[in-house]
Specification:
The structure is a homodimer of 369-residue chains. The first copy, chain A, is of the alpha/beta class and 369 residues long. Chain A is built from 15 helices and 15 strands. The longest helix of chain A has 28 residues. Chain A is globular, with a radius of gyration of 21 Å. The two termini of chain A are 36 Å apart. The model of chain A has no long low-confidence stretch (mean pLDDT 96). At the A-B interface, helix 13 and helix 14 of A face helix 13 and helix 14 of B.
Chain lengths: 369, 369
């Protein structure tokens, strides 16, 4: 995938820098572990420090000091999940800030304007995030609204690109815009949404509205049914997913791009992902364990520290615990994607997927191979 | 100063890794900013994860993954300031853990044994930490008890070194032991304490019981009167101090070694030390400021990020704010010590001291030179 700030090898996982920073690590850490693209949240940066301030500082890349590609979400998901007293109508979403209660509106047009000011390399359209479960009628109604919003967002994006909106600073003239497929858990709605979203015409396409509480096999089935409806020559982005197993399963179904707060959020709670499954570092059995979390891992944490020390840091609530755990989990995700790319190039992706999923199930305390 | 884990250029500042980690930074950060020696707190490591566990893991260096010199305090200061329901008698200090209320005693002998198990390169004797202010009689009584404890601690240290205490694991046979001068704010008590502590005979000597609330000029005066009473061919360690100005003033009075939580603690509160004085990163005037905190600083924070971004991170309470601020303050302290060493070697320490103190007073928002 090529962007205005360089190429990204796919399949790729995007660490989430919600407010312009990934919790627990530095940009330098991200670069050294091989992260090629960062996701930041439009809702948070719009409220603080503000998209106008960032535009006047030269855009998001310069403001946060990150030189590689950045994808921004539309802000819609946070509005639906975080904002107070939100209402949605055909125009858009109307809400109050979770920070100070101030009133705001997010429409297909303003979500596009805000991301233009931020100057991300990839902007997302505003979509309606339907709660799960939803019946077929509600899902169809919401999917169709998301399609109407997609048309408005694309029109605005092209107007900004053509310089027809003089009062909006366009920080990154090379910005791309991705459409989003909705339709809840209904395959025929997903296929209809995909077909019409592709008709609108975006640089690439995402699958939204999954990982919202539906059974895991339902998610895999929807991905299997939806991915083939999206252009094979454009990256396919599965939004907000997931576990290491989810990523492997989704790549096997044609997904190229992922984002999720999971690896950093659970790291701060002491959960480490390894090639042999999950490791809860606070467990008493690690108090005297001289082994690294994952003896197959190249990260600074695994190269330098024992489970015994990491358990001590976590028990003592040292900041270093959150940092070392996050650095490991993000490295694990980056290496899993790199291994998948290599397997795909070798034509051995099926065998890799089966072996990886089996290895995750083995358990971290299984005897070392 | 040479230790079992290598040499330390003096004057030197020791970052404080209270529980075996310096808050907000990694060991790798500390090495790259030039920290040659780390201080860790015996009280905390004794309670969690325990000195016996650390000894059985091969000692503190191996347990925490730090290969350079380590100094451990005696645990006395934390017992006096942190522990619950503490009593002190001639035998030692008796207290309850701040973690679980369990009962413990810290004596000159057990403080020496615990540090032998930890295997630090420099162990400190247990001293009585008198509250300020204290009258001359109380100060004399406490200083004399500290002298009696020093004799007991040295006897124990030598017995451990000679292998006469078989039930204590000695993790670092090359460990040194420093004595501590007390005497509150009374010059004659300080001189008497120094003379007798030197008579006991330690590898080197520290000045304790300062920076406890006395006026700053009183502290400088006591340092001026005490340092000359300590051997010129051994490092002189001023415990628990201080601000950049304090370090410069104390080096000018013959001090070689410092430790303080100040640079990391205030960093987590948004205070940055610079060559031009103090910078409160949360101030509104930095919201759009593209300059680094200190344009004369080589640290990752100053090389990479603007005051505007650092202010945003702090306002958003991002972990990265604590990390970048701590990295800067520790680099500032390390470079201040390096600049002092260079000035001393050039025979220009007096001019350096005057210029540094004047520069700190200029104010960070003064026009750049």
């Amino acid at each position: 995938m090529t962007t205005a700030h360089g190429a990204v090898e796919t399949p790729a996982f995007m660490p989430v820098g919600t407010q312009g920073a990934v919790k627990g690590v530095t940009h330098r850490d991200l670069e050294s572990l091989g992260a090629e693209i960062l996701l930041t949240n439009t809702y948070h940066l719009y409220l603080r420090p503000g998209d106008d301030l960032i535009a006047r500082r030269g855009g998001l890349h310069r403001f946060i000091g990150w030189t590689r590609p950045i994808l921004t979400d539309s802000g819609g998901y946070q509005v639906f999940s975080l904002a107070a007293r939100r209402t949605i109508d055909e125009q858009g979403a109307h809400f109050r800030s979770h920070l100070d209660g101030s009133a705001h509106s997010l429409t297909p047009e303003t979500a596009t304007d805000i991301q233009a000011r931020l100057g991300s390399d990839i902007a997302m359209v505003l979509d309606e995030c339907l709660a799960h479960p939803a019946d077929a009628a509600a899902a169809r109604h919401s999917m169709q609204r998301t399609l109407r919003w997609a048309c408005r967002a694309r029109d605005r994006f092209l107007a900004l690109r053509d310089g027809l909106v003089p009062d909006v600073i366009v920080s990154n003239p090379g910005q791309a815009q991705f459409g989003i497929v909705q339709g809840s858990v209904f395959p025929e709605l997903r296929e209809e949404s995909a077909r019409h979203t592709v008709d609108v015409g975006f640089e690439a396409y995402a699958i939204g509205g999954l990982s919202v509480g539906e059974p895991i096999d339902v998610m895999y089935d929807i991905v299997s049914r939806t991915a083939p409806c999206l252009p094979a020559d454009r990256p396919r982005y599965l939004m907000g997913t997931g576990t290491p197993a989810d990523l492997v399963e989704a790549v096997a179904r044609g997904i190229d791009l992922f984002d999720c707060v999971l690896p950093t959020r659970v790291a701060r709670n002491g959960l480490l992902f390894t090639r042999r499954g999950r490791l809860q570092i606070k467990a008493a059995r690690y108090a005297r364990d001289p082994r690294p979390p994952d003896d197959g891992c190249r990260c600074y944490t695994c190269r330098t520290f024992s489970r015994a020390y990491l358990r001590h840091l976590f028990a003592a609530q040292e900041l270093l615990a959150y940092r070392l755990n996050s650095l490991h989990n993000l490295t694990f995700y980056a290496d899993l994607m790199a291994d998948l790319r290599a397997a795909i190039e070798r034509g051995e992706s099926r065998a890799f997927v089966e072996n990886a999923l089996a290895s995750f199930r083995e358990g971290v305390d299984a005897p070392s191979y």
